[in-house]
Automatic annotation (TrEMBL):
Protein name: Ribonuclease HI
Organism: Rubripirellula lacrimiformis
Annotated segments matching region Disordered: 141-200
Enzyme class: hydrolase
This protein's UniProt keywords: Hydrolase
EC number from the UniProt entry: 3.1.26.4
Length: 200
């Protein structure tokens, strides 16, 4: 399950979740516009996604929202034991988004959920090298198009008939679900888990 949210204003935006089977087939996708900050909208996507699954299931939850993933692993057990309230300057108040966290907690008692923080960083920008590799080519109509030369593709690998017959070739999904077949030369390596992806 992939959960994401985007804010169009400070307190308004859209949430979205998509549920896929382990073979990559899309099961359900939903999106809507709501009032709330980015954290609340992402939580709403997770709640709606988890509540839409019929029966107990194994779920790998992917999100780019650090607040949600960290809270699921670090804060939720403490909030649960304190009935989702905490002390703030001598007063006991609800934790932020307590209504949604209660629903998440209920869903976690039904499903076995593994949460993964997906993060990415821009490691290259528009550079003079990229501009230098761009060149203009002529088409049949005499107009010119801008084309970037492709990077090195690496050695050709023969396609195995078993791999070509399998439904899903999404390596990330297979890796996260622990079903990726390791090459013979790498069988001695330790298998990474979702815990390895969590930010410390």
């Amino acid at each position: 399950m992939v959960c994401q949210a985007r804010c169009s204003e400070i307190n308004r935006g859209t949430w979205q979740f998509s549920l896929e089977a382990s073979d990559g087939e899309l099961v359900l996708e939903a999106t809507d516009e709501e009032v709330g900050d980015l954290n609340r909208l992402t939580l709403l996507a997770a709640v709606r996604g988890l509540e839409s699954i019929e029966g107990a299931s194994r779920v790998t939850l992917l999100s780019t929202n650090r607040y949600m993933i960290r809270s699921l692993s670090d804060s939720l057990p403490r909030w649960r034991s304190n009935n989702f309230v905490w002390e703030h300057f001598g007063r006991r108040i609800d934790v932020q988004h307590a209504d949604l966290w209660r629903r998440v907690d209920r869903a976690l008692s039904i499903h076995r959920v593994e949460a993964c923080l997906v993060s990415s960083k821009l490691v290259s920008t528009d550079s003079p090298v990229a501009a230098a590799t761009a060149r203009t080519i002529q088409t049949d109509r005499g107009t010119s198009n801008l084309r970037f030369d492709a990077g090195h593709a690496g050695p050709n690998r023969p396609a195995s008939s078993a791999a070509s017959k399998s439904g899903s070739k999404d390596q990330l999904r297979q890796w996260l679900l622990g079903t990726a077949a390791a090459p013979e030369s790498q069988t001695a390596r330790r298998r990474f888990t979702a815990a390895d992806l969590r930010a410390s």
